[in-house]
Design goal:
534 residues, alpha+beta, 5-stranded antiparallel beta sheet, 4-stranded antiparallel beta sheet
Length: 534
Amino acid sequence: MSLKMIDTINNGSGDGWMITNNLRVSGLASGIDTETMVKKLMDAEKAQLNKILQNKTKTEWKVDAYRDVNTKFLDLRTSMESLRLESTFTKSKLTSSDSSKVDVTLSGIPSRSEYIISSVKTYQPGTPSSVKFASTSLSSETTELGTGNGFQFTLNGETISLTAQDTIRSSITKINELAAKTGVTASYSSGDQAIVFTSKDPATSMTISNLSNSNNVLNLAAGSISETQNDFPAGNTSGATGVSAIQAVGGQVTINGTTLTLKNNELTYDGVTFTFKNDMPAGSNVTITKKTDVDAIYDTIKGFVDKYNDTIKALHDKVEEKKYKDYAPLLDDQKTNMKDKEIELWEEKAKSGLLQDDQIISSALDKLRTALYSNVSDVDSTKMNKQFDSLADIGITTSSNYKDNGKLEIDETKLREALENHINDVSLLFSKKYDTKSSLNNTANNKDEFANSGAGWRLYDQINETMKKITKTAGTSSDSYLSKALSQFDTQIDSWEKRLQTKEDYYWKQFNAMEQAIQKSNSQSSWLTQQMGG
């Protein structure tokens, strides 16, 4: 296709040789592969843009890496935050000298270390009220009451109407549909050919009244029954038999000389829940003893130590991670010729070392070590026991291997002995809090609070300060340092893309002008040849 034909298509006219600015003609006259030529020129022009794109990707990866670090600090804080609380070190366990008679569980904070149960008369629960009405007239649940045998009655204030077409089964259904209101259910005993009424619990009484037919086919009779009374005409022709109700009998227990009433066989008293299983005559004592729950407190401390060791190893690995300078983030067009596994392996090396020698992490690791290893002081020297003012005093020390980077080690025997015999001192070592009366101060930014507060508070505050720094650097807020950097990259990318588009249009315009000139020259040459009879 000639340039003149293309120009005709675009301008609707064959007059003139001007090519539109947007028309891109690839070497029609010159034979040059213009597209390839322009692409190579633009590849050179795009070098700076590609560098910005790669820096943006690396910054996004760094944000993700920082957030992973923040998650590790959060997990570490979760594992140790209870160590700054006194309640962690007041955990107790109870033992019973005879659990076959009295069992115990903690339900609060007991004020005593020992409870003596000197006598028990267990609570005897009552039984629900029950009354049975037998009727030989109805031998099957499906037999209808029959013509003229319909009647009404009132059960605990609710009226129930039975028709001639009702059977024992449907009658029971009507009664049970009102059970939520009456507190009474009915059932059928085939052996006795009887309907049995039963209250839902011992405290619910049962009253049948307002019988429209006292000689009803079901032999229902009027009367009342409860734990304390029964006026059903049991044993007469009404058919009311099997009437029963047993009143509950309250119990009593004597604990440390104080007699208490039992409304069931479980009693919560002074932070202890007692379960009484058998009667105990006076003098047959059962002793309940409260002791420090060494196992629970030890497990809490060990859980923190394990998490601390895992965390500092992971963070040291990050700041010491090798950088592969030859592995820059891949551009989209580079990925098109690579397999997924190749991309994965490349990016693994490209991401390596993003936090190498990072000052936030390195500083945090140093400060955590200082928080753990420094002795706990006290402005009131009578409060802090100098024999237990460091973690080493209770069996928590650092590894002697420098390659472990301050890994903590526990002497289990020494720690358990301290928990068993010096629990108050251990509690102060972790949970002691010195207050400078300023809400802005904490152990991470105030030397007095640091020196006079326990290891639990020091760690907690230092972790919080570190997390704040990381959030300020790589948080989701647009004010974070790396968020601002990403925003600047976006601005630069937008500017470069516009600049490159202008440059590409310029190259095409130049090549189009060249093609036009060559085409014009070729046309003139052809005309001269024709004039000369060539």
